[in-house]
Specification:
heterodimer; A: mainly alpha; ABC transporter involved in vitamin B12 uptake, BtuC; globular; B: 2 domains
């Protein structure tokens, strides 16, 4: 980490295959994947509808908003930060979109772009205060969680905007190449984020920040720039999710996305990203979000009410971390 | 924090006064944008010109006068930000900030004259909060540049007294009440004052527990769900068994049980508190929704309504708030356990080396937090004649806001119960004042957010100065 250009000390000594498989299975992603497979099998055995393509595609459609925001959230949590304001940025974007289009009278295309700009700016402001003033991320984004939501509520005064033109709904309700349109956004987002995180120096910088921020700074890594970028990215993705959300539900309201941050953080943390920073992966996050969505859906199809589903998700969240802690401590003993 | 300290940065020599510029700029802008909403919502609220009133009362408001305000405010904001974020601050900048303050002030003089001359000055009355607030800000902006600045090293002792969070909150509260009271005397009516005090009492009680939790460096975001669940349990006990004492006693006890589970997971299983309470939030909310199936509790027995009782003509919630705050404050300040909270939050390693068990203290603090949440839920359950089947919306946010604004530092190690309670009252006073100055309550959340931000910035500055 300290010397990036120097030949990396060989940590990847080839272990025997069995050990590698075991290592993989005992990683958080591995554990989760097993849970995922087991629960899919279990749920599929209970009801026919669950594994049908149409059902899975619908679930994919519903998952996109959380999924898009979970990607930058993974980055942020890896650096040891957190962003609680994502749901509020989503709401603010939705309102700004409606206001630009309906009240200001701009073309809808421009309104979308401007709303995304507002979202990015909102994320950038989070980052700016965190980086330059040194406000702890939890508090900064807690403040903006209230502030951005307050802006959305104040600007809209509780009124909703409806009546968007037909083409606008294509993003949230239409299909493209056989998949719901917004899933393509998510897929592209996942690929880009995964490549950035695991294959670029920028990605390594994020881990370095999470492991030892002072060390990263003294190694000449551009810590501040990296943080500004990921918080702005978080704003942008929340905005994107807001746009898709509006397009999916065909209306704009100021309470949109409230509580989103909890779903997103649950998905990321469930995916094995440590809330203390330093470890985590996009793969884990993706498995985490799919697991949550399928659990919700599968349980609902099995006649469990939506309310009971959130209990299960809460339990899975705590339980998976307990298991992970247990495995990690055993590994340390070894 | 170590990262900030170790990193080479020029931030140490930034001064409080620069932040004042930013904050004032933000407030001026916010006030300006709020203005159209405040006064004449029916005129539409999109721009400067819409404020020109042509109705019965004939106030000849010149639009060009209003134009000055956002310009001045934006200038102050920009310059303030510049001085905060630029490594060096210059005389020129301060002069410019002061200049924009003068412009804003000049605007107000024009504005004020126009209204005095206008007939039916009730318009002034209806908008007076924004007006006076902005006037005060303009004066402050000028004062900021004119008054001598304390250099980073020296410190006035009076400053230290006035600089403590409780005093600031008290000052803010008094200022708010005075300003709103002048603009609308009904705000000071006994009934309203009582309402301000009692409507957020359950927030204040919960905020005491949250303060303790945050002092140890943890957080609890499941408060709202727990209050919702305990309130319903309390109501069900009252309706089903008629044992009112049990209905009052059960929430604190069950709250401590729930707190114990959370505390166990956090302290002994080493799961970060934000994750545990995130999980608890889902679990408790799910239990609440399943159990009630969305139906609220009605037909509560006569004697159940604890929060509506008024011993000595003072509402019960106020009693609870005051007594619990004083007890908690004394306990946190003088008891061994109280001190150990600060020790764990301030420096874990030192606390461990002095023989304190971090695990046990964190566990206990969550149990105690559960107790306060339980009391809070009794107050919440008994304040109306029905109990809703949903958690009080946004409660955890309001409670954490109260704790943070009350001076608890999320970095751990500081904070008091009195601060939390004062902050809860301040939030309540702000909410109530919005009605009296015709400000749309939709802006409440934005004000809350700004308040957290301002408090935290002030806290960071204070810490920096202390370190220097």
């Amino acid at each position: 980490m300290a010397l990036q250009d120097a030949p990396v000390p060989v940590t990847e000594t080839r272990k025997p295959l069995g050990a590698r498989v075991r290592h993989l299975l005992l990683s958080q992603e591995g554990v989760l994947f097993i849970i995922l497979v087991v629960s899919v099998l279990f749920l599929a055995a209970r009801t026919d509808k669950f594994l049908q393509a149409s059902n899975l595609l619908t679930q994919g459609r519903l998952m996109v908003e959380v999924g898009l925001v979970a990607l930058p959230m993974t980055f942020i949590i890896i650096t040891g930060g957190i962003d609680l304001s994502v749901g509020s940025i989503l709401g603010l974007t939705a309102i700004m979109l409606g206001v630009f289009w309906n009240n200001v009278g701009l073309p809808l295309e421009l309104s979308v772009v401007l709303a995304l700009g507002v979202a990015t700016l909102a994320g950038f402001l989070n980052g700016l205060f965190i980086v330059r003033v040194g406000v702890p991320p939890l508090i900064m984004t807690l403040a903006t969680l209230a502030f951005y939501r307050g802006l959305a509520e104040g600007i809209s005064e509780g009124r909703s905007v409806r009546g968007y033109p037909e083409w606008f709904y294509r993003v949230g309700q239409g299909d493209f190449l056989g998949l719901p349109t917004q899933i393509w956004f998510l897929i592209i987002g996942i690929i880009i984020s995964a490549v950035i995180l695991s294959r670029t120096t920028f990605g390594r910088t994020l881990y370095a920040i999470g492991n030892n921020e002072v060390g990263a700074r003294f190694s000449g890594l551009r810590v501040d720039r990296a943080k500004l970028l990921i918080y702005s990215f978080s704003g942008l993705m929340s905005g994107l999710a807001g746009w898709i959300f509006v397009s999916r539900v065909t209306t704009t309201r100021s309470d949109m996305g409230s509580g989103l941050e909890l779903d997103v953080i649950a998905a990321v943390v469930l995916g094995g990203t440590s809330i203390f920073g330093g470890t985590g992966s996009i793969t884990g996050t993706v498995i985490g979000m799919i697991l949550i969505q399928l659990l919700k859906n599968g349980l609902a199809l099995n006649g469990v009410t939506a309310d009971a589903t959130i209990i299960v998700i809460g339990l899975v969240l705590i339980f998976s971390i307990l298991v992970n802690n247990f495995i990690q401590s055993r590994r340390q003993v070894e | 924090m170590t990262a900030v300290a170790a990193a080479p940065s020029a931030s140490a020599d930034r001064r409080a006064t620069h932040f004042v510029g930013v904050i004032l700029g933000v407030l001026l802008l916010a006030a300006y944008f709020a203005l159209p909403f405040v006064n004449q919502p029916e005129l539409g609220a999109t721009g400067i010109t819409t404020l020109t009133q042509r109705g019965n009362n004939e106030f000849e408001l010149e639009t060009n006068g209003l134009v000055l305000l956002p310009i001045a405010a934006a200038a102050a904001l920009g310059l303030g930000l510049w001085t905060v974020f630029s490594p060096r601050h210059e005389r020129v900048t301060s002069i410019l900030i002061g200049g924009s303050g003068v412009v804003a002030l000049a605007y107000f003089i024009i504005f004020f004259k126009a209204y005095l001359e206008a007939k039916g000055s009730s318009y002034l009355g209806s908008m007076a909060f924004g007006f006076w607030a902005m006037l005060a800000l303009a004066v402050l902006m000028i004062a900021q540049t004119v008054l001598p600045r304390a250099s980073t090293g020296e410190e006035f002792s009076i400053r230290r007294v006035l600089g403590n969070q409780e005093m600031i909150l008290l000052g803010g509260l008094i200022a708010l009440v005075t300003i709103v009271g002048i603009s609308n005397p009904r705000y000071l009516a006994e009934r309203n004052i009582t309402d301000v005090l009692q409507s957020h009492a359950y927030i204040a009680v919960a905020a005491i527990g949250t303060t303790m939790v945050i002092i140890t460096g943890n957080i609890d975001i499941s408060i709202g769900s727990l209050v919702g669940l305990l309130a319903i349990i309390s109501g069900r006990i009252a309706t089903d068994t008629g044992l009112i004492w049990l209905a009052w006693l059960a929430p604190p006890v069950l709250g401590m049980v729930a707190g114990g589970v959370t505390g166990f997971l956090v302290a002994y299983m080493r799961i970060p508190s934000i994750v545990v309470t995130l999980g608890m939030l889902s679990i408790l909310k799910g239990m609440l929704l399943i159990w009630t199936a969305g139906s609220r509790v009605v037909d509560l027995p006569e004697g159940f309504f604890l929060a509506q009782m008024r011993p000595l003509n003072i509402p019960m919630p106020v009693w609870f708030m005051v007594v619990l705050t004083i007890l908690a404050a004394l306990w946190m300040r003088y008891s061994g356990f109280g001190r150990s909270l600060y020790a764990v939050g301030g420096n874990k390693e030192a606390a461990r080396l002095s023989g304190l068990s971090e695990h046990r203290i964190v566990f206990q603090v969550f149990v105690i937090n559960g107790f306060f949440v339980g009391i809070s839920s009794v107050l919440y359950a008994t304040q109306l004649t029905i109990i809703q089947a949903t958690p009080p919306p946004g409660m955890e946010l309001t409670v954490i806001t109260a704790a943070v604004v009350g001076g608890v530092s999320i970095l751990g190690g500081t904070g008091t119960a009195i601060g939390a309670t004062l902050a809860a009252i301040l939030l309540s006073a702000i909410r109530s004042s919005m009605v009296f100055v015709n400000l749309s309550p939709f802006w409440l959340r934005a004000v809350q957010g700004l308040l957290i931000l301002v408090t935290v910035l002030a806290d960071l500055l204070r810490r920096r100065r202390q370190r220097v």
